[in-house]
Design brief:
Blueprint: H1 2-26, H2 30-54, H3 59-86, H4 91-113, E1 121-123, H5 127-139, H6 146-160, E2 165-167, H7 176-195, H8 198-227
């Protein structure tokens, strides 16, 4: 029972980070709101892989993952970009921002009903990547003109529902856990240095790293026991 729900705990944590991002936007803490989305990306990269490693993949888990993704990488980035780039346009800005979760939902639904998925390529940009890019744009918004952010937002919306083939990292022989965690922590520290807000960044970075090490150790021991 516990083993079956381990990936779901990562998925629900991803959803929680999406909610935290929205809450931080309401507090006008846009930098840390962006960090929450990036943290959600790391968790999202782990839940499916854990399910496959543990042999507990299920339809329930896949549907739960989609529901979490639409919040963390659809609604949260939309609220974030509205507050930082489109709020001055009023209701029009809301409608423009709202296109992001709309197109993201279409992207997720299309992925879920695809009966013959290609493991080497994604059709259209995944909502996780698109939401993460919105978060990164927000972090560095002081260096970018508003028109560039608006163009990038529109471009990502279109790419999510396009038929463009995006290479999947599943086919790349790299140590995915280590690479994802390392890049995330480096990005987190860079953002913390840039914003001067180390407290909340480290408060999430340290537990996430401990969680990563624990899961990695658990899987290594499991593989070792299976070989014996």
């Amino acid at each position: 029972m516990i083993k079956r729900n381990i990936p779901n705990l990562f998925t629900l944590s991803n959803l929680l980070f999406g909610f935290l991002s929205i809450g931080l936007v309401l507090q006008k803490d846009y930098q840390n709101a962006s960090i929450m989305i990036l943290a959600g990306m790391m968790l999202d990269s782990l839940d499916g892989r854990l399910a496959r490693k543990l042999g507990v993949e299920s339809t329930f888990g896949k549907e739960l993952d989609s529901l979490a993704d639409i919040v963390t990488f659809g609604v949260a980035p939309a609220v974030l970009i509205y507050s930082t780039a489109f709020s001055e346009f009023g209701i029009l800005g809301m409608l423009i921002s709202g296109l992001f979760p709309v197109f993201g939902a279409i992207r997720l639904a299309r992925f879920n009903v695809d009966k013959t998925p290609d493991n080497k390529y994604f059709t259209g940009v995944p909502i996780t990547a698109a939401g993460g890019l919105i978060a990164l744009l927000t972090i560095f918004q002081n260096f970018l003109p508003d028109v560039a952010i608006a163009v990038a937002h529109t471009f990502l919306c279109v790419l999510m529902v396009s038929s463009v083939k995006i290479p999947s990292l599943k086919s790349v022989p790299i140590p995915k856990y280590g690479t994802i965690v390392t890049l995330f922590l480096i990005s987190l520290l860079a953002v913390a240095f840039y914003t001067g807000r180390f407290g909340i960044s480290l408060a999430f970075a340290i537990p996430l790293y401990v969680l990563y090490m624990s899961v990695n150790l658990f899987l290594k021991n499991k593989r070792k026991n299976e070989r014996e």
